[in-house]
Amino acid sequence: MPANSMLLSSSPHVFANVDVRKIMLAVILALAPATAYGVLLYGIPAVVVIVSSIAAAVLGEFLFDLAIGKKPRIGDLSAVLTGLLLALILPVSTSWWMAALGGIFATVFAKEFFGGIGANPFNPALVGRAILLMSFPAAITTWHKPFGPIVDATTTATPLNVLKLGGTLQDVAASVGATDIGSLYLKLFIGARSGCIGESSIMLILLGGALLLALGVIQWITPVAMMASAVLVSWLLGTDPVFAFLSGGLAFGAIFMATDYSTSPITPAGKALFGAGAGVITALIRKFGGFPEGVTYGILIMNSVAPYMDKLRVPRYGKVRPPEPAAAKEAVK
Amino acid sequence: MKKKTFRGGAHPPERKERTEGLPLEYVRSVKQVVIPVNQHFGAPIHPLVKVGDVVKRGQKIADAEAKMTVPVHASIAGVVKKIEPRMQPNNIDGMCIVIESDGSDATDFLPPLDGFACTKEEALARIHEAGIVGMGGAGFPAHVKFSPPPGKTIDVVIANAAECEPYLTIDERTLAENGGDVVEGLAIVMKALGVKKGVVGLEDNKAQLVAGIGDAIAKRGHGLDISIQVLTTKYPQGGEKMLITAITGKEVPSGGLPMDVGCVVSNVGTLKAIADAFTKGIPLIERAFTITGGACETPKNLVAPIGTLVADLVPAIVKVNDASLRCIVAGGPMMGVSVPNYAFPIQKNTSGVLLMDRAEAEASEEGTCIRCGRCMRTCSCRLSPALINESLLANDLEDAEAIGLLDCIECGTCSFVCPSRVRLVQRFRVGKQLLRGKKQKEAQSARK
Questions:
Q1: How far is A4 from chain B (nearest CA, A)?
Q2: A13 and B354 in contact by Cβ < 8 A?
């Protein structure tokens, strides 16, 4: 007879080889190319922003959980991911303490206040960025030239800034050192332009997205819906559609932010509507808003309505009218 | 031949390699059997014998009048020693008849019956008298399944050999060694129901059996239209609804039965038992099952009398590594029931016994839902497990029902794929009970 230590649990008794930590690790891995490229563009100051954001996000969550008597869950790497995501959507001109403050806002205020992973209504990294943008508007909208020292003399305008200030596509091309529109597209795709630390290289962001799709971590619906609608509406509003796709944080936001599990709908139709809505708002803010870029608010605004979109469910198995029994058909005749 | 399958589902590790192809081993002499009185889904039945009675193998020892009942027969010849509650494989104590072998092999079988010369009523009566229930797991009375109400016509009888549960290889062995009996049973059911078409459905991890089944159909198919359908291996394909959808493309309506889409599905073990009940007159008194798992040193495909205690098989027939044993499961790992010890009998619907070791049996802590949607993408009923879970956590039974709680087939795929190990199907089982209880109360108060 076996010893009295048998495991008694309700079925199933086997589980898939997946856990939250592995999922978060996959996203961090997918962000690695864009992160490395950001460091290549801006050097040590970018590392400082990334490290302080991650450290503060993790430490903030840990200490907050200890303070309220909750078992800290930083081992699931969710806070690390949040800190990294926040750093990648900040300009390199952000000082280390601002990045740290943003990290704390992201995990403590935007996530743990609402109950922690899975329960937060708004994307933590985007909340962190939105708060920093409101608190330190000058620092968060100061951009530096890639491959240069991070000093006042090297500040520049992002391609979207140029457009917002009334510039034409030719002006944008000139600002990144491209001779014609074709080479502008190429430079934007590769990422030879100023911007937030991780948002520049569309190529590397798409690479990360492809990895997440291949691993089944994200679904294609949300990013495709968001990018397509943003590009379409921008085009209708008179912006070059290819430029709309390649500039700003659209690709980064659509792939890494709009797909956040907790803050986006869970059903396929909900995901499509959510992505499309975020894309439309992004394009509208870019065209008519006070800021040159609208991805942050586009996604945050859709976050607030995401729970309602879960009502858009797929028809379930067998939810068809049962075939009429032959006898009943006969009776009708 | 084109492989078919259904939408959704998952791929749990198969772990069938240790017993795949191992010939059936017959356990002929057991010193005692503990036969549960109620082994079927339906109304309760009662013992017909008392302590001290001498019974023959095949003698009816429990029965009742109600329609949703199935009699139970003595599986060995001997003396009734006790009639008392004992642990059943569902981990609940139920009334059991304990018979001690007297060493004789006195038998009391039914006379053989020609399934092709008798009426439908005679055939159904024989299936009932032989104590046959669905042996795939549910234990649903077979004669009830084969009795469509007036107005419903059956077009196809499906022999279920999907065997989508990991570890289990007993349908495979039954088809490989008793394929002729399975086909005979299928033909008998088709004849009784007046159905023209029969299909044997099996997953492609058993594709090597196709030629053998083809021979069996040629020899014992009585010239009926019986075909073989290979399916892409995926869990829960052996679920009745999923198998029907995979093979016919039709969906069983919500709240309906397979007969609503003209189908009857029967496990291959059940069909073999039906063949025995007609050709040899032997009631359902033994069954084949797989005993395996990481802590099982001698994994086997066994055939034993109904009521054989697993405790009596260890260590004479099955060797177990007690040090590594962590979890005992009656059935498969996806839907089976874990039990505290070996002291439970093999009953009519026990398809396997798993002796899992520490590496296999994960003791997990329930995390919170991170809304990744894996459960929704794999749910074969296209439900939204994450959302039903939210409703149940909020004690909102109405909302859970609106999202489709009652359509859940409890296959456990959602819990299997959940990265946070949220107790989804476990909570749904409780939720379904609560919801049914609530509906019953409402119906009662409405009557008053």
A1: 8
A2: yes
A131, A147, A163 - which closes a domain: A147
Domains annotated on chain B, with CATH: 1-28+106-363 (3.40.50.11540), 374-447 (no CATH)
Enter the tokens of residue B95. 């009334």
Task: State CA A285 to chain mean position distance.
Answer: 17
- Say if residues B346 and B99 touch (Cβ distance below 8 Å): no
d(CA B59, CA B47): 12
Establish if A210 belongs to a structural domain.
Answer: no
What is the rounded CA–CA span in Å between residue B407 and residue B218? 39
In a domain, A5, yes or no: no
Q: Considering only CB atoms, which chain A residues are within 8 Å of B151?
A: 325-328
> Is residue A11 situated within a structural domain?
no
- What's the pTM? 0.92
Comparing C-alpha atoms, which of B234, B167, B232 is closest to residue B10?
B234
Q: Which residue of A has its CA nearest to B330?
A: A11
- Are both A136 and A242 inside the same structural domain? no
Instruction: Among A116, A147, A178, identify where a domain stops.
Output: A147
Chain A residues with CB-CB distance to B412 below 8 A: 11-12
pLDDT value, residue A312: 85
- Residue A116 to residue B373, Cβ atoms within 8 A: no
pLDDT tens readout for residues B243-301: 999 999 999 999 899 999 999 999 999 999 999 999 999 999 999 999 999 999 999 99
Helices (H), B97-223: 120-129, 142-145, 170-193, 210-220
Q: Name the domain count of chain A.
A: 2
Residue in the block written with tokens 């990013």: A223
A118·B329 Cβ contact <8 A? no
Question: Are residues B265 and B162 in contact, defined by beta-carbon separation less than 8 angstroms?
Answer: no
Q: CB of B361 within 8 A of CB of B395?
A: no
Q: Looking at the structure, do residues A136 and A39 belong to the same domain, yes or no?
A: yes
CA triple B130-B136-B137, angle to 5 deg: 95
- Facing B407 at nearest CB: one of A267, A317, A322: A317
Q: Tell me the chain B residues in contact with residue A272 when contact means C-beta distances shorter than 8 Å.
A: none
Residues of chain B with pLDDT under 70: 1
**A130 and A236 part of one domain:** no
Same-domain status, A129 and A245: no
Query: What is the domain range of residue A69?
Result: 19-147
Chain A residue numbers with beta carbons less than 8 Å from the beta carbon of B91 are: 8
Q: Using CA atoms, how far apart are residues B385 and B403, in angstroms rounded to an integer?
A: 9
Both A23 and A125 in a single domain?
yes
Judge whether A88 lies within some domain: yes
In three-state secondary structure terms, B288 is strand
Chain A residues close to B327, C-beta within 8 Å: 6-9, 13
Q: Which of A13, A22, A313, A332 to mutate to test the interface with B (most CBs of B within 10 A)?
A: A13
Q: Tens digits of per-residue pLDDT, A168-187? A: 888 888 888 888 899 999 99
ipTM attached to this prediction = 0.91
